[in-house]
Design a protein that fits this description.
- Helices cover about 30% and strands about 0% of the residues.
- The longest helix is centred in the C-terminal third of the chain and has 11 residues.
- It has one domain.
- The radius of gyration is 15 Å and the shape is extended.
- It starts with about 30 loop residues before the first helix and ends with a helix.
- It is built from 2 helices and no strands.
- It has about 70 residues and is an all-alpha fold.
- Its main location: cytoplasm.
- This is PhoH-like protein.
- It comes from Streptomyces sp. SID7499.
- Keywords: ATP-binding, Cytoplasm, Nucleotide-binding.
- Belongs to the PhoH family.
Length: about 70
């Protein structure tokens, strides 16, 4: 696992969208597993973006909101 390769004075940034998974139903994505395992660990942070962070057309923000319902 690449997360174990972090060196001194280094940072790792992982990007992904846990809502965009095309795995079979009931199968957790690796990103979701990492989040569940590492959340709350010192020096580990997860950022969550919402429709308020959309910088595309205003309709895109409303579409994101509709999917979250």
């Amino acid at each position: 696992m690449f997360l174990t390769r972090l060196g001194f004075d280094s940072k790792i940034v992982i990007t992904g969208d846990i809502t965009q998974v095309d795995l079979p139903s009931g199968t957790k994505s690796g990103l979701r597993q990492v989040q569940e395992i590492l959340e709350g660990l010192d020096d580990v942070h997860f950022s969550r973006l919402t429709s308020q962070d959309v910088v595309r057309h205003k309709l895109v923000g409303r579409i994101v909101d509709a999917y979250e319902k």
